[in-house]
Each structure stands twice: as structure tokens, then as C-alpha cells.
Amino acid sequence: KAGVTQTPRYLIKTRGQQVTLSCSPISGHRSVSWYQQTPGQGLQFLFEYFSETQRNKGNFPGRFSGRQFSNSRSEMNVSTLELGDSALYLCASSLGGGGGTEAFFGQGTRLTVV
Amino acid sequence: KQEVTQIPAALSVPEGENLVLNCSFTDSAIYNLQWFRQDPGKGLTSLLLIQSSQREQTSGRLNASLDKSSGRSTLYIAASQPGDSATYLCAVESGGSYIPTFGRGTSLIVHP
Questions:
Q1: 3-state SS of chain A: helix, strand, coil percent to 5?
Q2: Could you list the pLDDT tens digit for every one of the 114 residues in chain A?
Q3: Interface of A with B (CB under 8 A)
């Protein structure tokens, strides 16, 4: 079956712009989580959506937001981009019904802010 | 708050060696522990998932063990190959949320 699909794979944006990233989870998975990965900070959790509701949120400013649609596809948006937002953004999907489910990751979106 | 530490941070070995990568966590109340592999600039590939009730899982040349009481997991790689070169991350899903906490990873290079 198809894995987790993230689009686009690469993005170059200018400071101050906004960006929207997309994640299509594995069919049947209801939980989608987003992460930011940088060399300095490692993998940092942004937020998690389950059945169209944000269930968990990490410690990121309000410029980072997300949503999940009825088909479980998710988008994350970053407004007023800063140079420090340059990173690999990863999404993961899981069945999400409770603790103990396996997470599967997409290939990521590489965002470069110039 | 759960904290996950991976030692060593980097490892370089000749082809054919058997390896042990370590992962330790501070809170033993976990749901599961998952090992991932990440190639440069790519996403994470799930290798093994160990539920809290299990002691180990095996897949091919990989074997992961879990000791909740001591807060440790090890990933054993048998007969390493250059294609095993990657960063290996462990992630622990703890009680109270469904969000895994990741270690910083072990960067492995297997040279021919």
C-alpha cells in the first residue's frame, strides 16, 4: 500500500512569506504528526491531529499552524517566514487510536528561507 | 518529562562487524519504543517497534531489545554492510500523550 506522501519535496521562500506543506497519510491512518528537523535541534514535535482535531501541540510560536481534513490529509502552514525556519519538515502517520501504534514517516519537505 | 539519550553519537566500523547501538530513557512508563533509520536528507524508515509488554523484536539482521526497568534499549546489527550507513534514531512513546520523544540519533558509517 502507498506510504506517507509529502508535497512538495523542496521549497525556497523569502523571509516574510508564508508557506503551506501537505501530507497524505497511509490509508486508514487517522493520526498525523508534524516535526521540524534541524542539525542543531534534532527532531522537534510541532503538532498532532487525530480525526480533524489537534490533539497535541509542541512548543512552537503561533506562526506554525495546521489542520486535518475529513480524509485525514493534513496541511501545515508557516506564516511570516524567518531564516531560522529553514529545516526538513516531516510528517508521520499512525492508526492513532491509542498508545503503542507504529509511526510511519514521509520523505519530508526541505524548506529553505532566504 | 521523558528524555531519550543515544550513545554513541557517531560510529565508524569496518564491514562485517556486529554492532550495538544504545538508547536510554528516563521514564519507564512507556507504551512502546521504535527504532528508525534515516538516510541524509530523507525521511525516517521504521525498523522495529517494541511494545511495552515485549522484550525484543527481530527483523533480518536487526534485533532490538527493551528493558523498561533500567530504561534501556539496544539495537543489534549483525554482519554490518556499507548499505547500513545511516543515522539510527530511537523514539519512545510514553503515557499521557501519543507523541514519541526522539533521541538525537547515532550516525553510523560502515566502510568497505
A1: 5, 55, 45
A2: 679 999 999 999 999 999 999 999 999 999 999 999 998 888 999 999 999 999 889 999 999 999 999 999 999 999 999 999 999 999 999 987 666 678 899 999 999 999
A3: 4, 6, 31, 33, 42-43, 45, 48, 50, 55-56, 58, 88, 90, 92, 94, 96, 98-108, 110
